[in-house]
Amino acid sequence: MSHAPTADTGESLFARLTSPRVLRSILPAFSLVVILLAIFYLQPRAMSPIGLKLLFNLSVPIALATIAQMFVLCVNDLDLSIGAYVGFVVAVGATMLDGGIAALPALEGMLPDPVPWILTTPISGVIVLAAGIGVYALLGALIYIRDLPSIVVTLGMSFVWAGLAVLVLPTPGGSAPAFVRAVMTLSTPVVPFAIVALVIIAIVVHFGLMRTAYGAVIRGAGGNPRSVARAGWSLLKIKMVSFALAGFFGMLAGLALLGLTTAGDANIAVRYTLLSIAGAILGGSEFVGGRVSPIGAVIGAATLTLANSFLTFLKLNPDFQIGAQGAILIIILALRVLINRAEARR
Amino acid sequence: MKRVTGIVALAALGASVAAGSAFADTSDKKIALSNNYAGNSWRQAMLRSWEKVTGQAVADGVVAAADAFTTAENQVTEQAAQIQNMILEGYDAIVLNAASPEGLNGAVKEACDAGIIVVSFDGIVTEPCAWRVAVDFKQMGKDEVLYLAEKMPDGGKLLEIRGLAGVFVDDEISSGIHEGVAENAQFEIVGSVHGDWAQDVAQKAVAGILPSLPEDIVAVVTQGGDGYGAAQAFKAAGRDTPLIIMGNREDELKWWKEQKDANGYETMSVSIAPGVSTLAFWVAQQILDGADVPKDLTVPFLRIDQDNLEENLANTEPGGVANTEYSLDDAKKVVDEAKM
User: Fold this and answer.
1) Where does the record locate the signal sequence feature (chain A) (predicted)?
2) Nearest Cβ partner of A58 from B68, B81, B168?
3) Burial of B281 (0-12, 13-18, 19+ CB in 10 A)
4) Which is the CATH superfamily of the domain at B137-271?
5) Which of A9, A331, B138, B247 has its CA 20 to 30 A from that of B315?
6) CA separation for the pair B186, A229 (Å, rounded)
């Protein structure tokens, strides 16, 4: 799928290792390692299982949201609603997925006594979350059929999701279902669960998207839709599948976040929209052309989380911290641009 | 049960402190401020007060360090990460102005489990292991209506300016206002807009709703940071300025002073002094010191009335908010009141 020139056999090993293509795929991992080493230098205490757990914990939901964003990027679209959608999932998770319809704060005091099981079953939460994924698939269909700009559609949807989230959970509260909490507080020997989870996410999505036939078709739909359509694939179906996958991973992100915070807040993930785009781009994905990297996306998400911690450990003045976060992003992306330029020159 | 564990933890802490020295000593303790937002004058003043008071405390050797950290954006997830980083840094206490009362509970619990004292203030957290230096925001909203009821026994129509939607402070103040209105039936809220605690947003929101409102609005109930914007919106619409409750911001107080001098305009202004961060600091220091501190404490309001307007305005920095800093004795007093 890549348009990068393949290295000639005549090239030396050094030239091959420093080819833009290799550099670009190494850059995300390289930035992660640099920031991690800097953190270890500043705060040696971070170099322990507990320390790593605390450092990487919150990158799990961000990584899942980044994967969701990546699926949308993959078909040349952009999802500006993912943050609000994750917030919606958190709101539903903290209420209906825990105590059924009866757990909705809006219904407090209106319930019959005793409460029938149909109102307390978490199945209602499962249905609502499944409907959320369904809505994502329909969005994909809408964007394809009406040929609408995804930015406009998803920007509109972000208000819908945010509104629904506030309706479900008007004030922060609720509680994470026990199984969600149990998964996110799993303790694994030696390597913290957060890192295990990140690796699993990266590997599963990598194999699904980069190593299966249909994964190649999805990426192809982003790279060259016309030829994919000529080969007999339904572009409508491809769009729907990739948006549904985005909805699915967005849902996982919401549940993972809920498991970490233990309680819900409709506004909890507003920042995820930008983080997921930044994470995906940091990880080597492109806005167009179906050029994405699941492993890179996970690494990008982790890098963003670590950059945050790094600045805390640096004890920067709060006023500068805000700017410094942006500066780290710009530096890494500038390196990307340099590598791309080098590629274009060849 | 949770209270019992708290007491046990406290006892254990007391024991360990007592073992360290004859009288509890906090000079080697490190306290961190975790702040979720620095984008308005109130928060800026809060950070300055913290710097001033804790800087002195560190210089005096009361504590070893008192560092302030602010997240780039007002986001729960970012602040949770910040708290986790503070655990790693090995702080003994975290003073916390939380982005969400519930969303940080996971991170706060992790801090408590690591043996760290967590004192939340202003934006408090519900996790039982943390202390809460809470503002009775609901009472603040209710006080506004009570003031109006006293001032205007005949009542009338009110416009409500709310804060940022979905933030619990907004819900609390608003529910206090509505409770006050319910108890004083001569008042009626005819319109409600979100001013996001910012003058420009409030001005736009009020300007937008004004044409649909009746002419005889007697007062505007606010949440602070929005009074000046509301006044500008009324002026721009060419309508008489009703009584607008202020929120201790310098621009609001200055406008009030101008109106007072020009036409005897009367109102009141109420908010929480940003220096409450220093109160929370001393509370944390007291807990580290081994003092018996109840988990729930209440912050006094800073109220400005017609007669002490000039004095407060003189003490308020341009672009700032009326402020007062708290001392160790103030903290002890608040603790003693909570015990009663």
Assistant:
1) none
2) B81
3) buried
4) Response regulator (3.40.50.2300)
5) B138
6) 69
- Could you tell me whether strands B30-35 and B65-70 are parallel, antiparallel, or unpaired per DSSP bridges? parallel
Domains B2-135+273-303+321-339 and B137-271 share a fold: yes
Chain B CB contacts of A315 under 8 Å are: 67
Inter-chain contact B85–A271, Cβ cutoff 8 Å?
no
Secondary structure class of B296 (helix, strand, coil): strand
**Contacts for B5 with CB less than 8 Å, ≥ 6 apart:** B129
Alpha carbon distance A170, A175 (integer Å):
14
Residue B2 has pLDDT above 50, yes or no: no
Which backbone phi and psi does B17 adopt, to 5 degrees? -65, -45
Give tens-digit pLDDT for A179-237.
998 998 888 888 889 999 999 999 999 999 999 999 999 999 988 999 999 999 999 99
Q: How many CB pairs under 8 A join A and B?
A: 115
Residues of B in contact with A171 (CB under 8 A): 166, 168, 171
Whole-number Cα distances in Å, A110 to A100, A101, A121: 14, 12, 17
C-alpha separations of B192 from A287, B34, B287 in Å:
41, 32, 42
Judged by CB atoms closer than 8 Å, whether chains meet at B47 and A257 is answered as: no
Whether A233 and A217 have beta carbons less than 8 Å apart is answered as yes
Burial status of residue B221 (CB atoms within 10 A of its CB: 0-12, 13-18, 19 or more): buried
What's the average model confidence in pLDDT over A300-307? 90
Q: How far apart are CA B207 and CA B138, in angstroms?
A: 27
